[in-house]
Amino acid sequence: MRCLVLGAGGFIGTNLCLALGARGLPVTGFGRAAAPPPALARVDGLDWRCGNVERLPDPDALVAGHSHLFDLIGAGLPNSSNDNPAQIVADGMPPRIRLLDACRRQGVRRIVFASSGGTVYGPGTAAPIPETAATDPISAYGIGKLAAEKYLALYHHLYGLDYRVLRIANAYGPHQHPLREQGLVASVLHRLLTDTPIPVWGDGSVVRDYVHIGDVVSAMLAVAFGEDGPPRLFNVGSGVGRSVRSVIADAARVAGRPARIVAMPGRSADVAVNVLDSLRLRQRTGWSPSVGWEAGLADTADWLRRALIKS
Amino acid sequence: MRCLVLGAGGFIGTNLCLALGARGLPVTGFGRAAAPPPALARVDGLDWRCGNVERLPDPDALVAGHSHLFDLIGAGLPNSSNDNPAQIVADGMPPRIRLLDACRRQGVRRIVFASSGGTVYGPGTAAPIPETAATDPISAYGIGKLAAEKYLALYHHLYGLDYRVLRIANAYGPHQHPLREQGLVASVLHRLLTDTPIPVWGDGSVVRDYVHIGDVVSAMLAVAFGEDGPPRLFNVGSGVGRSVRSVIADAARVAGRPARIVAMPGRSADVAVNVLDSLRLRQRTGWSPSVGWEAGLADTADWLRRALIKS
User: Fold this and answer.
1) Topology given in CATH for the domain delimited by A184-206+240-276+292-310
2) Per-residue buried b or exposed e for B260-276, using 16+ beta carbons within 10 Å of the residue's own CB
């Protein structure tokens, strides 16, 4: 058994590689950087491959020899994805499909795909959202994630290629880079710790489901190595909705710093409320979120402080 | 008001152009052929444009001056689409998105998109299928149609571009070319009339919903020029399921010819049963299918006989 992690240098990828390594599982990390992030120095026997999944000369060579593939590669950011949706489809989807072809040829046993619980469902869905809810994305990013899910199901139907999809809520925690505009918690805590003003889009009432990265990684391991058979698609979230303003207030309390807020216009790709129902994952795998909100914030703040000291 | 019909030389397009022309609506037809099909000689003032939507040098120039756009362009056939799904996405989706961009820039008032009720829902759905059923295509063709639907909804959300999606069952009737392997009814009737053996894939138990082209066209007109507001997505079918074997038997009776059947292996892109529930369309627009099955078969056989005499 050997795991291939695509997007291994990113937030989720770094945490997943650490968890796989801690369990003694051999890991190949694939990322854009020439070398793995320093945090992965702890992973014994990590095989690092540098490349861009959109321009892979030989997908079979990358995939060969791996039993499990974790696809954590995003397709841009939800907001910027609407600037050029045609490009995202043209660049992003065909390489992903060619990767699936390589997986079936090379006998990969299971693919775990990180989909987006925050963008595939779209607006107007009652919270918490079950996996059976309507999928009406309001970003090209969400459409891309949904199409990737559908291709996995197609390849399972046609070729028996096994997979699991995790529709992940807003993950936060250590190793989330605060300056990439990907995670509210990391960004807010970083701004608090560096005494920088915090931009708030719209009235700050947008509600999201924040799930700690430790719980996301445990969900990935549960579905990657758990039982066979359907269902193959699971939400992963805390089930708790928090507004932007309440996240800022909580983070300020945990960081022990006052928040300076700068009002910004609302964004069209923002769904008003997005909270996931993860009952299916709990029932099928025994998973449950184990990191409390305040503890998760403190954990993230600690990591950011250490990262800031280093830089 | 001026209508642009993409795929105007095809089966649905030819019938739609005839219906629009009969109502005195100015029509631009867009197709791959240098000239419109002979049947469209009856459409007064038809403006014909020749081109390939996947290689449009200037989408704005095509779209400008039209109030309504009917997108009837397929993306290959459901079965062959699985041979090279990456290519279908790379070639088919980006031009479609660029066309949407042109529509919003040029002020197109409404887009009517011909989606596929036979492939977007996938297997395991109870018949008859409502629009709210799960969408799990087992062909790249179905995924492409679904993605196109999602992009329409996205552009409506972002830019207010109005649209209607029709998930059409198995359309049949005059002007369906019997040698393109697209329609069972046309193919079977043509083979009966020319005393050619009829291939049957699998055991012939696959059940489909056959809807006459006259009813499809009336549905298109109803949603194109009807009321504003949601819902914007409708099934169009007869609501009656017929097996391949029963279609052949009925067609043989109507044609007055015996059927010679050749058994072929089953196909992976075939859903076992697909019958659509069109209640939403009936309730919202007053539409109902008006062409009976036997009358529709006779109508199609008559057209094929005339087409055969000409050729």
Assistant:
1) UDP-galactose 4-epimerase; domain 1 (3.90.25)
2) eeeeeeeeebbbebbbb
Report residue A82's pLDDT band, with 50, 70 and 90 as the boundaries. Answer: confident
How does pLDDT run across A8-23, given as a tens digit for each residue?
999 999 999 999 999 9
pLDDT for res A269 = 63
CATH number of B184-206+241-275+295-310: 3.90.25.10
**Given an 8 Å threshold on Cβ–Cβ distance, is A94 in contact with B87?**
yes
Tokens of B130: 């409502």
CA-based torsion, A195, A199, A205, A206: positive or negative: negative
- Mutation target to probe the B interface, by most B beta carbons within 10 A, among A150, A165, A270 is A150
Structure confidence by residue, pLDDT tens digits, A155-179? 999 999 999 999 999 999 999 988 8
Tell me the DSSP string of B85-127.
Answer: HHHHHHHHHHHHHHHHHHHHHHT--EEEEEEETTTSS-SSPPS
Name the CATH superfamily housing domain B3-172+210-237+277-290. NAD(P)-binding Rossmann-like Domain (3.40.50.720)
Whether the model pTM is above 0.90: yes
Topology of the domain comprising A3-172+210-237+278-285: Rossmann fold (3.40.50)
DSSP, residue by residue, B154-208: HHHHHH---EEEEEE-EEESTT--TTSS--HHHHHHHHHHTT--EEEETTS--EE
**What is the pLDDT, as a whole number, of residue B266?**
81
What gap in Å lies between CA A82 and CA A59, rounded to an integer?
A: 28
Per-residue pLDDT at A66? 98
Between A and B, how many residue pairs show a Cβ–Cβ distance under 8 A?
89
One-letter amino acid at A135 equals T
Chain B residues whose CB is inside 8 A of the A87 CB are 94
pLDDT bin (cut points 50, 70, 90) of residue A261 is very high
Q: Does residue A83 register a pLDDT over 90?
A: no
Interface pTM, i.e. ipTM: 0.90
Residues of chain B with pLDDT under 50: 75
Chain A residues whose beta carbon lies within 8 Å of the beta carbon of residue B233: none
Cβ contacts of B94 on chain A, cutoff 8 Å: 86-87, 89-90
Angle formed by the axes of helices B244-255 and B293-310, nearest 10°: 60
